Amino acid sequence: HRKDLRLYMSFDQGETWTEAFQLQPGYAAYSSMQKLDNGDLAIIYEDGSIGNKDLHDCYAINYVVISSETLNEKIDELYAESFASTVVKNTVSGSATGCDSYGSFTEESNSWYTTWTSNDASGLAGVTVVASGNILGYATGYNQRVMSLRPVEAGGTYDLTITAPDGYVIDSYSIGARNWSASQTYKLIDPSSNEMTTSTTLKTMDVENVNAKTSTFKFYGSSTLNFLCVTNFAITLKPVLNLNTVGDASYATLYLPFDVTLNDGTKAYYVEQVADGKAKLTELTAGIPAYTAAVLINSDAATSTSYTKASGLTPVVSEADNLLKGTLYSTTLDLSDETNYYSLGKLSDKIGFYKFQNGETTTITLGANKAYLEYNAGGGVKGFALDFGGATGVESVRNSELSDFGKETMFDLSGRRVSKPSHGIYVKNGQKVIIK
Predict the structure, then answer these.
(1) How would you class 408 by CB atoms within 10 Å of its CB: exposed for 0-12, middle for 13-18, buried for 19 or more?
(2) 3-class DSSP assignment, residue 311
(3) Staple partner for 97: which of 101, 196, 253, 307, CB 3.0–4.6 Å?
């Protein structure tokens, strides 16, 4: 349309795009941008906001620079939003669209259903709402195509369970509803048993801080003659953090641009120092401050954990002093002998930071929000054991991405790999051994 020029950002390799700035309201065309050496973003474009608006016969050339500070602030803001939540809606205003455009009903009985499942148009496919009876339906009410609730029996109370798809947990949800008939009594009851009696005036039930795969609320209806119109139903999800199980515990690394606290008993650590072939970890007891690369440990061997966004956490360690480094985006590390990068993995079922070795391949690709160890060990050191000061375990990135260096691999006390050990003390399979 050559108008309303905007700058968009993507945080999922171009799958989705989010508006960051509007550069030019009105007519504009032929834009080009370049990141400058100082990190600023320079943009040049044709400004058609002057002259004849119909013929576009007069354009000016505009040159705009967005400072690196402004750009990074916007990246942090939008990244936090995109990573932290996915909102799934099942109704929107408009007589032609609504819950059945954003999902489908199944398990029918007399045109009433027990299950609604979201599709891609809703924001994310695979969210289910399952009722304990055939009480779900859809109708046009209040000029919207809405989900409707009607009891199977007058005076009945029914459970409705929301379940997040794989990889997500429910953060919160909001249900806005109004009665089709003023003469009927309907109630929505939240998981804490707080009741909301509805009316023909829109009322909203908000359920926050769920942090679980499922959440169940209740519906009460006094009559089967009419129904309750659910005119707004938004479910906010957040992705879980996958953990890798090794032995009796499970592990992951994490790097985020906002403060979080961890749930499910998962603990977080940063690398304070490297000495004597070990990486010493220090626990982040209050949570993980923004831009703090961390190792996660769950002593119950959970396969995933969830987090809660926080604010105001005091940085425990500077990025410079934390030997763990993080990446917000998928990145490839050069793990050849000349570099100082060590990715987290296992050696003979022992957890540590190791250089990836797979034949002639000396690179590893880390996913977004992962962390790695950066340390100049020298002498071709291949890895470091983990020193938790009495804690248990550490993360394994993806075991299939890491080579097993062999059960007979030995390191000296400086962390250097030894192929032909002589007399002395060495580390073998994570244990000290003495060769006399």
Answers:
(1) exposed
(2) coil
(3) 101
Task: Give the Cα separation of 372 and 406 in Å (integer).
Answer: 22
* CA distance linking residue 187 with residue 93, whole number of Å: 23
CA atoms of 327 and 369, how far apart (whole Å) = 5
In the DSSP assignment, the letter for residue 358 is B
Beta-bridge partner residues of 173: 207, 235
Of the listed ranges 16-30, 84-98, 166-180, the one predicted with least confidence: 84-98
Count of Cβ atoms closer than 10 Å to residue 39 Cβ: 11
User: pTM of the entire structure?
Assistant: 0.62
Beta strands 186-189 and 214-221, pairing class: antiparallel
**Residue of 302, 279, 310, 292 whose CA lies nearest to 253:** 292
- Rounded to the nearest angstrom, the gap between the alpha carbon of residue 182 and the centroid of all alpha carbons in its chain is 42
Q: Does residue 391 surpass a pLDDT of 60?
A: no
> What backbone torsions phi and psi does residue 71 show, to the nearest 5 degrees?
-65, -45
Distance CA 131, CA 118 (A): 15
d(CA 344, CA 431): 18
Mean per-residue pLDDT over the chain, rounded: 81
Which stretches within 145-233 are classed as H helix?
A: none
Give the position of tokens 């829109």. Answer: 202
